[in-house]
Amino acid sequence: MASSIFDMRLSGGHPALELVNTVDSRRGRWGPDFLRSFDDVLAFVERLQLIDARGLAGLRERAAVDPGKAEDALANLIRLRETIYTLFIAEDTDAPYPEPALSTVVEMARAGRARQTLLKSNQNFVWALPFDNPSDIFHLFAIAATDLLTNRSGRRRVRECKGDNCGWLFVDRSKGGRRRWCSEASCGVHSRVKRFRAHGDDR
Ligand SMILES: [Zn+2]
What we know:
The chain is mainly alpha-helical. About 50% of the residues lie in helices and about 10% in strands.
């Protein structure tokens, strides 16, 4: 069982959903929350490979100089995380996206996009955040969430894991679109064992 941001399972299939899943769990009971400090946030984006060593060092330095800004960034990221959850859990039941959540995420992503600059990366150019302010962390995830919205091509759908004490969100890219578990090896096996035991009690 995971106990921190360093060993939590990454089974959301998209950065915006991995962010949602930093609460273990959401169904049955809520928590624990793996994002307890700005250091946790930095460890998380490093694990997701969303930032390079230079960006990471820059943010670490900014957070040390101005801890208040790092705390604000953490609080805003947690708010954004819950908004992203509200937005994408709607897909599980084919409900329309809730309007306030949608406009909050879009506004945050627009602010983030305005901060992006065109950087040369190998032979390519990429739009990237400067990571010279802790607030770029939530810009990063707001942009990721809108990327997930604009990539609804194919059969992808966001699902809620139906495992007991889970409720994580994941991208279902399965052919039939009937994937039930965030992780077959964890929630899937657990649920089958439980069903087997319940069946045994009936006899
Ligand atoms: Zn699960």
